[in-house]
Amino acid sequence: MSPKFALLAPIGLLALSNIVMNTAWYAHLKAPGRALWIAVLASWGLAFFEYALAVPANRIGAQAYSLAQLKTITEVFSLTGFVIVAWALFGERPNWNTGIGFLLVAAGAYFIFKGPFK
Question: Is 92 helix (H, G, I), strand (E, B) or coil?
Answer without folding.
Answer: coil
